[in-house]
Write a structure and sequence with these properties.
Blueprint (H helix, E strand, L loop, with lengths): L3 E2 L3 E4 L1 H4 L7 E2 L6 H10 L12 H13 L2 E3 L6 E9 L2 E12 L7 H6 L15 E5 L5 H9 L6 E4 L5 E6 L3 H10 L6 E4 L18 E7 L6 E4 L1 E5 L6 H8 L4 E4 L6 H12 L3 E7 L7 E7 L1 H15 L5 H13 L4 H6 L3 E4 L2 H8 L4 E6 L5 H8 L10 E4 L3 E2 L3 E2 L4
Parallel strand pairs: 7-11
Antiparallel strand pairs: 1-6, 2-4, 2-21, 3-20, 5-6, 5-9, 6-11, 7-10, 8-9, 12-19, 13-17, 13-18, 14-16, 15-16, 15-18
């Protein structure tokens, strides 16, 4: 049984804390030193000051409460978290329900979920919302949320991806009750969590601690899975033509007609990916003399790669992980995590930006991924003991700071 509850939210008092644009940070517990410094510099009350929520960060939150930079809502309620953005001239909205997830009894689905989370202390579950999916083809929860949301958002902020984040209070106790009741027998799927790409360390005990969750309808038109592209550098004796020839032994290779038509390349990748797995590599020679190739893996090719990874790691991999295994482990005889740790792989979300960076003389190769579908992501997640790899991400991303869970609960 799934049990979600209203909670007393801690929200910024903008009179004391300042402009909302300066207060929010990515909703994940692991920030690089550069990211942390960037967000901390925006404001002494930026949410990044609470990472990773050890004793020092807990004291900071207590000080914010005393200074009234953060205030506790008077009653426990649910919140509607709207994300609006534009893609291909179409206005898209993703509705999320922010609630407290009860861990339930030992061995329950919620307990199993919580043991996947990467935090060093249970209290960190008050800060960063974990995105969970639920199935609601008739959009019943959306209708309930719209019927009870406050007339105006309590908070509005825009992120660097062009997403507008808006938080509304759900003011009707009856609607809050009905929403919680609706979720009692529903299954929840974790597809996005505030973590790095490394394996998640299980927590010792979450028997008593609720966690902050953002629940999203799997049928939401505004939710999508997007690929992250990879730039490779610093590999000694790297031969792009040799790698292409090697990969061609276990895939079908198509030459790219133009390195400037990124739109056409991505469309072709999507077409090839409809009947298997597709990816692209660009590299070889100096700037201006590089070539590009599209690779297509048939079902037979995929099965062979899957068998290798399942035998080694006992997990069923995502499509992007199959590509990384094929390119880095088999093609280059390199360990992907070591390459990342050494800074030899740079991840970029925007393919146009990735192509621009790839023209640098220091970059040896660009790998363009295609992302798994949301349906496949949900099917595979339960079989993988860690969160989604860095080769794709769920869009639009959540932010931290719209609302925290109260210390007084």
């Amino acid at each position: 049984m799934t049990e979600i509850n209203p909670f007393k939210g801690l929200r910024y008092n903008l009179v004391k804390s300042g402009q909302p644009q300066q207060l929010f940070a990515p909703a994940r517990a692991f920030l690089s030193a550069e990211e942390r410094a960037l967000f901390k510099a925006k404001s002494p009350f930026n949410a990044s000051h609470l990472f990773p929520f050890a004793s020092e960060e807990q004291k900071a939150l207590a000080d914010w409460l005393e200074e009234q930079a953060v205030r506790e809502d008077e009653e426990a309620i649910l919140y509607l978290y709207e994300q609006n953005y534009q893609r291909d001239k179409e206005r898209l909205t993703c509705h999320n329900l922010v609630a407290a997830l009860c861990p339930g009894r030992a061995g329950s689905p919620a307990q199993s979920l919580m043991r996947k989370l990467p935090w060093g202390c249970p209290d960190a579950g008050k800060l960063w919302p974990v995105r969970l999916l639920y199935d609601d083809p008739d959009h019943e929860v959306d209708a309930l949320m719209r019927s009870a949301k406050s007339p105006f958002p309590d908070t509005v902020v825009h992120d660097d991806f062009g997403v507008e984040h808006r938080l509304f209070r759900l003011q009707s106790k009856e609607v809050n009750h009905n929403i919680c009741k609706w979720f009692l027998n529903k299954e929840l799927q974790m597809v996005d969590a505030p973590t790095s790409n490394k394996a998640i360390l299980p927590l010792a005990d979450h028997q008593q601690a609720h966690i902050l969750v953002s629940l999203t309808n799997a049928q939401a038109t505004g939710l999508s899975v997007q690929p992250t592209h990879q730039l490779l550098s610093g590999i000694s004796s790297f031969k792009f033509s040799k790698l292409v020839k090697h990969l061609g032994q276990s895939s079908t290779v198509h030459s790219m007609t133009s390195l400037r038509d990124m739109g056409g390349t991505l469309e072709r990748l999507q077409e090839l990916g409809e009947s298997g797995i597709a990816f692209a590599l660009i590299g070889g020679g100096g700037v201006g003399r590089r070539s590009g190739h599209l690779f297509h893996l048939s079902d037979r090719d995929i099965a062979a790669l899957e068998a290798e990874i399942i035998d080694k790691d006992n997990i069923r991999p995502f499509s992007t992980q199959l590509v990384e295994h094929m390119v880095y482990t088999k093609g280059l005889s390199k360990d992907l995590q070591i390459l990342r740790d050494r800074g030899q792989i740079t991840s970029v979300n925007d393919p146009e930006e990735a192509m621009k960076i790839s023209r640098s003389k220091d970059v040896q190769m660009l790998l363009l991924h295609t992302a798994p579908t949301l349906k496949l992501l949900r099917q595979r997640e339960e079989q993988i003991p860690h969160c989604a790899p860095l080769s794709f991400y769920v869009f639009p991303p959540l932010i931290s700071g719209l609302v925290f869970r109260s210390e007084s609960e």
